[in-house]
Specification:
Low-confidence stretches: 285-296
Strand content: 5-15%
Largest sheet: 5 strands, parallel
Number of helices: 15
Shape: globular
Order of helices and strands: EHHEHHEHEHHEHHHHHHHH
Oligomer: single chain
CATH class of the domain at 2-128 and 156-193: Alpha Beta
Radius of gyration: 21 Å
Mean pLDDT: 87
CATH architecture of the domain at 2-128 and 156-193: 3-Layer(aba) Sandwich
Strand order of the largest sheet: 2-3-1-4-5
Distance between the termini: 65 Å
Number of strands: 5
CATH topology of the domain at 2-128 and 156-193: Rossmann fold
């Protein structure tokens, strides 16, 4: 049996791919590929592999509320159930996926030993996203739980080198936005037609620039002292915001040209390393990636506004706020209503 482990990178279509694989389990099994369920939610991805791989050095967000004993119990349940699924299905290939392992703190030796308990024929696969696109996506993701903008950290080379030093087979390709196409890259040597795969019911929609601006202002206004913590009201605001964005002509997140150019200028030489190191790697449509561990945009502080990094259309922002004021949530939430009114005053 061959073991294929997909490790991300984050913001490169992993969730959509995992949902597709989960929906298509029967199709995959017909071709001898087992994409196992997980005993820990969400069941369509295998974050439990992070528990022994990281120990106490780093804790993925999904395990943040568990004690060490609880985490070990979660992993034992996952591991025993995985063995049961393998014994029952007797697959030619075991396919696992979790973006939590795309991290420089991973103990790759422990992960290697774990995978070798199933097979000595194992392979690591990963997509790589263009640095400018990656940062644009990360900005919105981080603002869901804090008003503080992230510095740009692009640790592609240092992470991939961890795996190439331990695993004989590591495949890497560039992510160009086709989440379902990832399945074809992951299962390159299996005869699985894209048309036979079952797509997820709902794909993540790209956030708008104006919505991202409002999200930061919301977190700063209502949760200034509650940094780095997701809240229920923020989740509700995001749902309402998403519904309103669909009705408005909003702008996709786009870094200001000088900041994007700074990132590109700092990221120019790793492309050749990827081409030399990975047989399946194809250059980006716009080559933008490089041999840097940390690339920083202009100094970001706790007070840095997202409008300093991305283009905001003031007329579209005003229209978005006006439409938010018409929602039932705004009408029933006086504090939120007052806050919105101040924004367009």
């Amino acid at each position: 049996m061959k073991v294929i482990l997909h490790i991300g990178m984050p913001k490169s279509g992993s969730n959509a791919m995992q949902s597709c694989l989960s929906n298509s389990r029967d199709v995959l099994l017909e071709k001898g590929v087992l994409y196992p369920t997980s005993t820990f939610k969400p069941e369509d991805r295998h974050h439990c592999l992070a528990i022994p791989t990281f120990g106490e050095r780093w804790v993925p967000y999904c395990f943040i509320n568990q004690t060490r004993v609880e985490k070990l119990k979660i992993f034992d349940d996952f591991y025993n159930d995985l063995k049961r699924q393998i014994a029952y299905s007797r697959p030619k290939c075991l396919l696992l996926s979790t973006e939590t392992l795309f991290n420089s703190l991973a103990d790759v030796d422990i992960l290697y030993e774990l995978l070798c308990q199933f097979s000595n024929d194992n392979e690591i696969v990963s997509a790589v996203r263009k640095p400018v696109d990656f940062y644009q996506s990360i900005i919105h993701e981080i603002l869901k739980r804090t008003h503080i903008l992230p510095n740009f950290e692009y640790q592609v080379k240092s992470i991939l080198e961890l795996y190439t030093k331990k695993f004989c087979s590591v495949r890497v390709w560039s992510y160009e936005g086709d989440s379902v196409g990832l399945v074809g890259n992951v299962l390159k040597n299996f005869d699985i037609a894209k048309s036979s795969l079952i797509l997820p019911d709902k794909l993540n929609k790209s956030a708008s620039a104006e919505g991202t601006y409002l999200l930061q202002r919301y977190r700063r206004h209502f949760h200034l002292d509650n940094a780095w913590k997701k809240t229920r009201d923020t989740d509700t605001f995001l749902k309402v915001l998403s519904q309103v964005e669909q009705k408005c002509d909003v702008t996709s997140i786009k870094l200001k040209s000088q900041i994007a150019e700074n990132i590109r200028n700092e990221c120019k030489s790793l492309e050749s390393w990827l081409l030399e190191s990975f047989e399946d790697y194809q250059p980006f449509q716009i080559a933008e990636i490089n041999e840097v561990v940390n690339v920083h945009t202009p100094d970001i502080t706790q007070g840095t506004g997202v409008e300093e990094l991305i283009e905001i259309d003031s007329s579209k922002l005003k229209l978005l706020v006006i439409n938010l004021l018409e929602t039932e949530w705004a009408k029933s939430n006086k504090k939120f209503q007052n806050w919105l009114s101040i924004l367009i005053a």
